[in-house]
Amino acid sequence: MKKLSFIFFLIYGTALSQNLEERIYVAAETFIENPNNTSLNLLSQQESAFKKQVKSKGEQLALVFLQSHKGFYLEQNTQLKEAIITFEDALNRFKTNELSEFSDFDILESCLIPLGNLYTKTGDYTNAENIIKQYIFLAKKSNRLKHQVSGAINLSILYQTIGKHETALKLTSSYLNKQNLNKYQKQKIIQLHIDSQIALNLISSVADIPKTIHKNTYNQHRNNYQIQLQKGNYVEALKAFNKVKTQLSKDSLSRRKLAKFYLEEAQLCKLLNKLSEGKKCLNLALQTLLPNIKYIEQLNKNSLYAENTFIDIFDLYATLQEDHKLTLSYYDLSFYVSQLLEDNWTSQENKISNQAANRIRSEKCIDIIFNEYQNTKNNALLFSAFQYAELNKSGILKERSLKKMLLQQHPNDSLLLQEAHLFKEQEEITHLLINEQLGKSQASVITTLSSNLNTISTKLKTLKEAINKKYSNLKDPNFLIDDIQIQLLKDKAVLVEYFYGKKNIYQFIISSDGIELNKISLDEATKKSIADFIHLFDNASTINNDISKFTNSAFKLYNALNLSKISRFENVIIIPDGLLNFIPFEALLTSKTNTTNFSKMPFVMQKQSIAYNTSTVFYLKKEKKNNANNLLGIFPVFEKTKNSLIYSIDEAKVIKEEMDATLFLKDQATKKTFIKNSSNYNIIHLSTHASSGDFSITANIEFAEETMFLNELYSLHLNTDLVVLSACETGIGKLYKGEGPMSIARGFQYAGAQNLLFSLWQINDLSTSKIMKSFYKNYSNNKSANISNHQSKLDYLKDDTISNIKKSPYYWGAFVYYGELTEPVNDNKLIYVFISLFILLIILLLLSRIKKPNGKDTTGISP
């Protein structure tokens, strides 16, 4: 007993004699000597305790050292999410405590490089690009060529992963003739350069590659395999691949790289229709990533983790199945892993890119179900197909809406408030970064902004973990077919949702009676019908110069989109997709016509009231309405300039007469004024110029003194019932699959606007003014934006003061309403009239009882 006491005293006394910095290094070194899951658990416990104690720069640096080695072990053992969290914390600690000024610790090698690789592995390409560019800049600044080239190699791999081979080619070209590269890096740069050339069909034979470059037979066979695969010579590709296998040392590969090798072999087997061999290779790939799984049938999805290789494995498994249920189950696993990956991302750009990939899978699932339905006529299948269509539709907006709803429910929650602040800061820095990149600013400025974005991303992920833990019941919006049909019955409406795929357009028609699924072949004729109709609105004269071309095109597209199937419904909710986002459905024609008189044409709008939405989730979402109807109006006017909006003044006058409005005109209509006041009003009206942007500049909107860009809108926090954008192209922007156009209108929806009225093309100042006047006169009476929008167009066509030329749908069809359907509300003035009439009637009745018709008193009392 005494001996045990002495040993305990010796160990405890030694621990006390060590300072905290030494204890951290000892813990790290102990783990490095014997890394396994048991020692990892002990290290994690120690790390947690150390975090609460560290204060000095020396202690902080020791903890960074510990975390770097912990992160490396986690990465090697496929615990990628935990590895990222560990590296991110180490990097943040290093930057926050300015440890680069305290020590020459190699943060690039120990943290930045592995973190960039991890981001690439987990599909977080935005953060990957930012972090890699950061350490390339730091390496250049400190003249560390090895790290600079490592960055170029990893950045090239990233670009190749996301299909940017031209960018990868340009990057590798800049390093081909660099002096003093080590042998490995030189060969890697050359090989990456060749890979991109093959992908771009710039190399068609191994003979085109100088023999001096092929230092080993492995690279020669590998290049030949890629060339033959690119050319579609699958038999020759298999021969080359088998030669690659003989040269490959599997023991030298990480589990991930080995799994990808088996996957590549399986993909080649599929192309050669060797399905059984393909399944064997896929099993090997899966077993490599999940050693405890022998067969796919044993897989429990809870054993999966955020690794994009799984997605490729399950997608290929799906294509090898004959049973449609099995096929869908494998695709569902891919969707599941995709969501695991996305849960760790914070950038919009990354999530939108992921949605585009998911939509390819969604289209396959919908097509499988459509074909199965043709055989079984099982109606339950149709809603399942509809859910696949909704799965990746406006995902970013849905997520944003969910966050906004949670904050409204818990307005004083410090976690939610901090998250909202970080989101705003993220968008502000993104806007600055875009501007700096366009302005070709100094690399140091761009690197600092990129670094700040990474820091915010890390903080957001940490907050998300805490918020999800606190609000564990928080889930993405979900709904049943009954939910839709109940709302449609209430609205006396039908819902038409489109899924614009690669080969087909799928149309879902849901009414209170049932659900219908139609497949529209996306052949050249259909594509031409859509494109031709959209281009009719490129300028004012196109339609008027050939009215018969318009009428034919409008009726042809009406039929192509199966809209005759919903002709019996008065109210229609359209959820467009792809290029259909740019179609003004109200301007389609329900029948053939030879008339050139626009007011007599059978426009859809004449018989049906149309409202749009970005997703069924938003159609079903009912937020509390603010009945105040106070309006903020912004009217820059731009007088005495070539962009003058003189009729904008007329809009302002009508709004002032009809609404409880605060208006800012001319020089007062500044961006600062708008930002300051935008969150205080229930309705926002912007009468100004806007642009859809181009490949380098995002969508934007003009104020008196400066321009506001899309990312700046994202940083606003609105609780606005209605936003009216009386400006050109506010619904136009770069089109992303699933998410729709990156337009000014989307920016307002992201910021929190519940309902929007906006334009699809460049519009005429005078006609816009007339439509807006009519809209607000109607709105002041009925308080229904969808009814007012519909009525304003009818009023425009009925207006005898407007010439036939000006009644072309070019002048009235641009404005589309996105939002809920609302019943008209009687105006208060009308109520007062009814009350007055009622009181007058009572008085008359009382008077009639006091005097007889002949004038004698009827009370029985003598005068």
UniProtKB/TrEMBL annotation:
The record's annotation in InterPro entries points to: CHAT_dom, TPR-like_helical_dom_sf
| Residues that span the membrane, as ranges | 830-847
Domain of life, per UniProt, equals Bacteria
Q: Which residues form the CHAT domain?
A: 566-820
Q: Which UniProt keywords apply?
A: Membrane, Transmembrane, Transmembrane helix
Which residues constitute the signal peptide according to the record? Answer: none
A Pfam family of the record is CHAT
| Protein name in UniProt | CHAT domain-containing protein
Q: Tell me which species this is from.
A: Flavivirga algicola
